[in-house]
Amino acid sequence: xxxxxxxxxxxxxxxxxxxxxLLDLYIQKLDxxxxxxxxxxxxxxxxxxxxxxxILTK
Length: 58
Description:
Elements: H1 2-12, H2 17-57
C-alpha cells in the first residue's frame, strides 16, 4: 500500500515549486504578449478602416 501512495504523491508533484513558479511566469508573459498582439491588430484594423473611409469619400 505504501508503494502506491508514494507513486500517487510523485505524480501530483511533477514540477518543483521553483519550476511551477517559472512556468507561471512564462505563461503570464505569453498572455501579455498575446494581449499586445490583439491590441496591435485592433489598431491595425482601425487604421485600415479609416484609410478605406478616406478613399471612399474622395
